[in-house]
Amino acid sequence: MNFRRDFLIAGASILFAAGAFSQTITVPVTIQAADGPVTINIPSDLAPLINQNMAQIEQALKTNNINKSKIEGDSGYEGQILKVYDDYKERFPGLKSPFEDTVGNINNFCDDLVDVIPNTQGIQNIYADAWIGKLIPGAHFGAGVNAGASSIDISAIKKTAQAMDIDTKDIPDTFGFPTISADLRIGGIFLPFDIGVAVMKFDSSKASAVEKAIDPMNFDYCVFGGDFRYAILKGGMFKPKVSIGAGYYYTNGSVGISNDQASASLNFTSESYILEAQASCKLLFLVPFVGTKMIYSKTNIDWKVDAKWNHIFDSTAPDYAEMLSVGILPSHFSGESSGSGLHPQVFGGVGFDFFIMSATVSAAYDIKSKIISGAVSARISW
């Protein structure tokens, strides 16, 4: 089966569903058949995709010599598209249509990503000390690793998978989006300030426990950024330290879910600008701390879907295969999403100092998005 025919079969299959199912909202679309233009009513969620791919569909109709009489009316593609939608709902109870459920839930998941990404950035490079320029003159350093996670609702991407007949197995609706970073901080030179940087790269396919937990889903991303903190109260043993600061983080990555017959993938980039305040107090070897961050984040996401609908649908419409071949049911479609806004976050925890060794346990809460995050770190500092 050649590409044109595959595309034709794909597109046409949705067209039948438009007229036959009474609860499906339809809109008129004019298509150039082999013998002239014809206006048919098709499901409203399909219309934008038909218009985007109109040139390929009309070429396929011409190549296959499909006339207006074959397209319009209850017995033509127009009526059979609604039949396909009806068959789809019977096969996938609780779903409405292949495109509304696929595209709608991808966009919902994009909204979830927009919220969680700044939280994964916000729990990196957290030191228990509000600033590391201690009372001893000279430079002070800290370097180590930080591992954490931010909760993310992945039920929307699971519904996207369901719409394309991808088995999500036992993947939970809420998942801990992991962060594993290396960081470095230096302070105590002349003025009471410190500067920290952090970098991270994570690929779920390289972590067997994560890969198994979310199969057939996968993700990877890279983060880098840093912050500057200025001590407004230097503190000391049993005396609190207080600092204010600002930071910047950049993230890019991808999320996907797939099987042999369908796939959905998203590529994202995100920038976050952070204002923060932190207080800490050293109590022998313990360093409890609290703080707050105001994160302004902007995220852009591009997504695409590839679906072999002829394997996914189980339609009884007589011209089902032919409609798929003329592309009225597009097998490849894409879109984009973006979001920006403020994420007020509170955080706190406790650090443990043992000579040059230190460890930190922290937790954070995004007040706006209600996202919980947590992290642990191990460092060498002096």
Topology:
Blueprint (H helix, E strand, L loop, with lengths): L2 H18 L5 E8 L2 E8 L3 H6 L1 H10 L4 H4 L5 H15 L6 H25 L17 E14 L1 H9 L10 E14 L5 E11 L4 H7 L2 E17 L7 E18 L3 E19 L5 E22 L1 H4 L7 H6 L6 E23 L2 E10 L4 E11 L1
Antiparallel strand pairs: 1-2, 3-4, 3-12, 4-5, 5-6, 6-7, 7-8, 8-9, 9-10, 10-11, 11-12
Helix pairs in contact: 1-3, 1-5, 6-7
Spell out the key features of this protein.
single chain; 382 residues; alpha+beta; ten-stranded antiparallel beta barrel; two-stranded antiparallel ribbon; 10 helices; 12 strands; 46% strand; elongated; disordered N terminus
Note down, in words, how this protein is organized.
With 382 residues, this protein is α+β, with helices and mostly antiparallel strands. The protein is 27% helix and 46% strand. It has a 10-stranded antiparallel beta barrel with strand order 3-4-5-6-7-8-9-10-11-12. Strands 1-2 form a two-stranded antiparallel ribbon. A hairpin with a 3-residue loop joins strand 7 and strand 8 (262-280). The model is unreliable at 1-22 (pLDDT under 50).
- Estimate the global geometry from the Cα principal axes: elongated
- H/E element order: HEEHHHHHEHEEHEEEEHHEEE
Radius of gyration: 27 Å
The percent range for helix content is 25-40%
Low-confidence blocks of residues: 1-22
**Number of distinct helices:** 10
Going by helix content, strand content and strand pairing, the class is alpha+beta
How would you characterize the largest beta sheet? Answer: 10 strands, antiparallel, barrel
Strand content: over 45%
Number of strands: 12
Strands of the widest sheet, in order across it, are: 3-4-5-6-7-8-9-10-11-12
